[in-house]
Amino acid sequence: MNKTYSISELAGEFDITTRTIRFYEEKGYLCPKRAGTRRIYTPADRTSLRLILRGKRLGLTLDETADMIKMYGSPRGNQKQLEKFIVRIGEKRVELEQKQKDLEVMLSDLSNVEAKCHVALANVVNSN
Q1: Average confidence score pLDDT of the chain
Q2: Residue range of the domain that includes 20
Q3: Residue 55: CB partners within 8 Å, gap ≥ 6?
Q4: What pTM value is reported for the model?
Q5: Residue 5's beta-bridge partner residues?
């Protein structure tokens, strides 16, 4: 018999709220079985949740992550999923590297303006 999980077990394991899990359900990313009002999650649901959270950490949209999850279990194995994931990782890396450069320029500009402000302040204090 496959292990099953409650919503609170998954929330605790992944350090997220039950509301977050219900949100992913509403969007159709998780499909637990029901026993009355109790949600019963399968190992596949757990894996999907893990992949959703990983995608989020990597900056992927929910739709991008969902596309990857849908590719699991394809007849050719995970080749297509992995190839697509590698491309997306490369795109994300380029995007983040550009943001990093932009932040470095902004930090440099802030330092320059701050230094000029200190000089101007010193001139004001010395002229009084």
Answers
A1: 90
A2: 1-59
A3: 61, 62, 64, 65, 68
A4: 0.70
A5: 41
